[in-house]
Amino acid sequence: MKYDPIKDRLGRFFSRHPLLHRLFFGVLNLLFLRAWYVRREIRRIMSLQPADRRVRVLDAGTGFGQYAYFVAKNFPEATVRAVDVKQEYLDRAKHFVDQTPQADQVTWAIDDLTDLKSEGPFDLILSVDVMEHIAEDRTVFEHFQRVLRPGGHVIINTPSDQGGSDVQGDEDESFIGEHVRDGYNMEDLEGKLRDAGLEPVRSIYTYGEYGSTAWRWLIKRPMQMLGTTWASIVVLPLYYLAALPIGLFLNAKDVAHDNETGTGVLVVARKASSGD
């Protein structure tokens, strides 16, 4: 049973109506611990931006588009360039955002991060659960450095090498497919960013003991149920009635805890400014 096909099928279902799509984004932000961490870092970096110009954000590998929408909705002074290699993802996300007041803040385009065509300068680049899918990571980081404004930041969120891809033995037993690497060692990721001219300023492990337990309760087990039979969607509300309070408590504990290790890693890096 693979995670990605189930995820894609759910995305197609919830894109049928704007209210369902809005609910889908809300569920993603609530259940997935990475969204808690990434949104916190976005708020932190956006609070540092000057008030005298528009802030430009590149959502590099936008996927379902929830972070592009989050930035546009919460920061009216920002514009977002949301790119992906999958036209289906872009079409669904654009269709939803075009029906919201944030439509004029977001542009959408097919773009390969290993041959990035989107033109900067950007003040912030988001790369959320993308780099584990790309073998030529050094090339991508070099492109990020090229299109960042001096003093700009990039947020890299990715599985770590501590089991972040949920690999269990051989490839046939891996819960999450489509990954070219099992995860990043934090020092390796920081080194590659430095080699590209981006200096890490904040590096943390996510999905520690608390978050990994929440992942199993809130995401993995429900996905396994759906992978067995889609009829289980009928009983999932009852499942979440019991699991949701526990899972959200564990997510909150993970965010508040200084994890010594974890199955996720988040690095914020900065391009040097002329005054540095």
Automatic annotation (TrEMBL):
Ranges where the Methyltransferase domain occurs: 57-152
Pfam family, one: Methyltransf_25
Transmembrane segments: 20-37, 230-250
Keywords for the protein's UniProt record, in alphabetical order: Membrane, Methyltransferase, Transferase, Transmembrane, Transmembrane helix
Ubl conjugation listed as a keyword: no
SUPFAM superfamilies to which the protein is assigned, alphabetical: S-adenosyl-L-methionine-dependent methyltransferases
GO terms of biological process kind: methylation
An annotated Gene Ontology molecular function: methyltransferase activity
PANTHER family, per database record: METHYLTRANSFERASE (PTHR42912)
Name by which UniProt lists this protein: Methyltransferase type 11
Organism whose genome encodes this protein: Longibacter salinarum
